[in-house]
Amino acid sequence: MVIYGIYIVSKSGGLIFNYDHNIPKTENEITFQYPVNVKLTVENKRIIVSFGQRDGILVGHVLTAVNGTEIKNSQLDDGTEILDFLSKPENFPVRLTFTRPKMTTNEKIFLASMFYPLFAIASQLSPEPKSSGIEVLEADTFKLHCYQTLTGKGIHMWTF
Questions:
Q1: What does the alpha-carbon distance between residue 74 and residue 125 come to, in Å, rounded to a whole number?
Q2: What are the structural domains of the chain?
Q3: Residue 22 and residue 127: Cα distance in Å, rounded?
Q4: Model pTM?
Q5: 65 φ/ψ angles, rounded to the nearest 5 degrees
Q6: 43 vs 87: CA distance, rounded Å
Q7: What are phi and psi of 60, to 5 degrees?
Q8: β-pair partners for 48
Q9: How far is it, in rounded angstroms, from Cα 117 to Cα 96?
Q10: pLDDT tens across 87-136, in order?
Q11: Nearest-angstrom CA–CA distance, 27 and 99
Q12: Spatial separation of the C-alpha atoms in residues 126 and 132, rounded to whole Å
């Protein structure tokens, strides 16, 4: 069992602490000719694939490097915007690297605050009196283990 992340949630559903052991792997590095046949957009200072799938590049994947050079805040090292760079035919062929996105702090807070109401509803809907709610939520790609402390804090652990 590999631990993907640990989240400690307060009684009211707020995120107190999180540990994210997700290290995104380089999933795809592909050479493109002009024009790029996937739609790229800027979202939260990241370049993401918003439409089109090709050779393992999926919608939601993030562009992390252009010709082997890492990008930061949707710009190249010289300050050129990535979308401007990719709109010029003279810059092609170009090698682009895509990975699964890493969760932002806001997404982690949202995830923690969304799970707490589900846990509370499951506790109330259970036919067993004094039910502890959701203990394990199992999907085909992960398991979510939920532990409750005596003080009401929740410890959520994502595993593979």
A1: 46
A2: 3-21+104-159 (3.30.450.70), 26-99 (2.30.42.40)
A3: 36
A4: 0.66
A5: -150, 150
A6: 18
A7: 100, -15
A8: 41, 62
A9: 40
A10: 999 999 999 999 888 778 888 888 878 877 887 788 888 787 777 778 88
A11: 5
A12: 9
Residue with tokens 């283990």: 145
Lookup: tokens for 101 = 């996105």
In order, the DSSP letters of the chain are --EEEEEEE-TTS-EEEEEE-----EEEEEEEPSSPSSEEEEETTEEEEEE--BTTB-TT-EEEEETTEE-BTTB-TTS-BHHHHHT-GGG-SEEEEEEPPPPPHHHHHHHHHHHHHHHHHHHHH-SSTT----SEEE-SS-EEEEEE-TTS-EEEEEE-
Q: Token pair of 144, please?
A: 């979510």
Q: Residue 139 to residues 57, 69, 160: CA-CA distances in angstroms?
A: 23, 36, 10
The residue type found at 141 is: T
- Which residue type occupies 71? I
